[in-house]
Specification:
alpha/beta, Rossmann fold, 7-stranded parallel beta sheet, 5-stranded parallel beta sheet, 13 helices
Length: 353
């Protein structure tokens, strides 16, 4: 049984969240807190597996409470964030402070439409509980395992003339934190363009790209229709649209589309299929932490077509869903912890045909 503490200053929200969660027989709401200070006290008392945390509350807000909860390891925290630009900024601050992940409230702080997120909320509560049940000791190794980067630094010679490769990365639950084990370690002059799909609401992807850009040597940008694809740039899928590529005589360009219909927009499968069509054997697929199987089919196609593929190992995956599907379907050339993926990507880009 997964034990949950709900933190929200709205009695209506506490009631609706409880109803949604307890429709699943594996989840039990153990208690409630009406603000951040109350949340810390209740978490110390109840020792829940997962804490759903509102952000804007009187006396002590959710971000402040999060820091105490993370410091004392009182439970995995799932932030409930409003679907606004301000909500996006706060959400990424929460993830940097140690929140497990977030679920967007569809109607703001008090959301009468909150039942729209029932499936996502239940899935992420279960994922948070599962991640807490094991210790991911491998994360402590990431600073010492990137030996290639440590020994070579920012290589100028990998910015070779001629055609460049394409790295297609798919990631979901746990992704905003895990991707920091990879992208900041990619050298600025890598001879590849990078395409990144993170399952995320439309109002969040621009802020996500901006934060990654501040942390990385390469340029990171949210895609816009018609952009030219250049090496040394990471193109982040825009929420609400699929990221696809088309080639002209002189360049590859970004195309945004809402077809085909898919649970996720952007979809990893759609993006990877498009990148493979444009770059063929010069495609490198990477599938990381996330629920479900988005991207697994495309990884198999990339491998069969002669490209290279990397699946994140269970050792570091917050949720070993998407990468496991790729592995079980035979779509992974390499199975690596997150802290070794950047290393391998640079090596694969440098390989000559």
């Amino acid at each position: 049984m997964i034990r949950v503490l709900i933190v929200d200053d709205s009695a209506l929200m506490r009631k609706l969240i409880t109803q949604m969660l307890e429709e699943d027989p594996e989840i039990k709401v153990e208690g409630f807190a009406i603000n951040g200070r109350d949340a810390i006290e209740k978490a110390r008392e109840l020792k829940p597996d997962v804490i759903t945390m509102d952000v804007n509350m009187p006396e002590m807000d959710g971000l402040t409470a999060l820091q105490y909860i993370v410091e004392e390891n009182l439970g995995r925290v799932l932030m409930l964030s409003s679907l606004t630009q301000e909500g996006a900024v706060t959400t990424f601050e929460a993830i940097e402070l140690g929140a497990f992940d977030f679920v967007p409230k569809p109607g703001g702080t008090v959301s009468i439409n909150i039942k729209q997120i029932k499936q996502e909320l239940i899935e992420k509560v279960k994922a948070a509980a599962a991640s807490r049940s094991r210790t991911i000791a491998a994360r402590g190794k990431r600073d010492t395992k990137n030996t290639y980067m440590l020994n070579h630094g920012k290589r100028d010679d990998i910015y070779s003339p001629g055609s460049f490769k394409a790295i297609a990365i798919g990631i979901s639950t746990g992704g905003p934190k895990t991707i920091m084990d990879v992208l900041p370690l990619i050298p600025e002059k890598i001879n590849a363009a990078i395409f990144l799909v993170q399952h995320m609401p439309p109002t969040f992807t621009r802020q996500y790209a901006e934060r990654l850009n501040n942390a990385c040597s390469i340029k990171v940008t949210e895609v816009e229709a018609g952009m030219n694809v250049e090496k040394g740039v990471c193109y982040v899928g825009k929420g609400g649209y699929h990221l696809t590529i088309f080639k002209t005589e002189n360049a590859a360009k970004i195309r945004l589309t809402q077809k085909p219909e898919h649970r996720f927009m952007p979809s990893v499968d759609v993006m990877m299929d498009s990148v493979l069509s444009a770059y063929g054997t010069n495609t490198i697929g990477v599938l990381m932490t996330g629920m479900g199987d988005d991207g697994a089919s495309a990884m198999v196609k990339i491998k069969k077509a002669g490209g290279k593929t990397i699946a994140e190992s269970e050792e570091t995956a917050v949720v070993y869903g998407m990468p496991r599907e790729a592995v079980e379907r035979g779509g992974a050339d390499y199975i690596l912890p997150s802290y070794e993926i950047a290393d391998k990507l640079v090596q694969l880009v440098e390989e000559r045909e």
